[in-house]
Amino acid sequence: MDTLELRKKAVQLRKRTWQLIYNHHNGHTGSDLSCADILVALYYQVINQNADNFGQKDVDTYIQSKGHAVEIWYEVLADLGYIDRDDLEERYSTFNSPYIGHPTTDVKGMEFHTGSLGHGLGLGVGVALAAKMDHSPKHTYVLMGDGEQAEGSIWEAAMSAGNYSLDNLTAIVDHNDLQITGTTDTVMRSNPLGDKYRAFGWDVKEVNGNDMTALVNTLSKPNATGKPRVIIANTVKGKGITVAENRADWHHKIPTEAEYQEGLRELDAQMEALENE
């Protein structure tokens, strides 16, 4: 897919996620919209994994440590044929459904239960270290939130990754400057984040996390540093829907009917603009 197609895909998946959350009155809206471009760049252009080879030896691993943003991941997996989209739309967040509010291995495409923040990077370190020991070409990607960086387990994992020179590990921080109770600088300041990772032996890249070209170029860039890589992706919480953008209260807010309709109009306008490029 070229960059324009990827940008269209991101708008399409934001719209489906917006609809899923509204229809089932459950989800982490702002967090989903924030990382949509990251997941599209990764799944549609970068990662060596698909619905047919998932789980096979030497296939890349993706771990979503910020598991509360699961709705956008469900929509990506449905769009790519890992799961049935009609089943997702009907059963999301219902009794006995595998499509719950955080990732679970009951869903094809998800290798780990996540959502208890701070654990995903440690899992990624384990997978990447095992791949090194097996001389496997597989790469491991871990998506974290910026509020999650306050967890001590993140830094134990970061130290381990640097110690073992895990250049087959890429961590991505969805850096939208907001978390459930306010700004990250107010709740628990982690900036300057890049300097901290450098001190732990990481190769650090910083990118506009809502710029598809920049994301694809950065995620695709070969790592010849001998170090694990972290990409600090500066994003907008609630990206794409004005009422939700840069608002901490939209961490898991559900749109009203009026907000829902306005969001649909905005997303449709964005798609029309892309169609005219």
Please describe what this structure looks like:
- This protein is of the alpha/beta class and 277 residues long.
- It has a single domain (3-275), classed as Rossmann fold, CATH 3.40.50.
- Helices cover 44% and strands 12% of the residues.
- The protein has a five-stranded parallel beta sheet with strand order 1-2-3-7-6, sandwiched between helices. Strands 4-5 form a two-stranded antiparallel sheet.
- Strand 4 and strand 5 form a beta hairpin.
- Helix 1 (3-24) packs antiparallel against helix 11.
- The chain is globular.
- It starts with a helix and ends with a helix.
Show the helix and strand layout.
Blueprint: H1 3-24, H2 29-34, H3 36-46, E1 61-64, H4 70-79, H5 85-91, H6 120-133, E2 140-145, H7 152-163, E3 169-175, E4 178-179, E5 182-183, H8 184-188, H9 193-199, E6 203-208, H10 212-220, E7 229-234, H11 257-275
Parallel strand pairs: 1-2, 2-3, 3-7, 6-7
Antiparallel strand pairs: 4-5
Key features of this structure:
two-stranded antiparallel sheet, single chain, about 280 residues, globular, Rossmann fold, alpha/beta
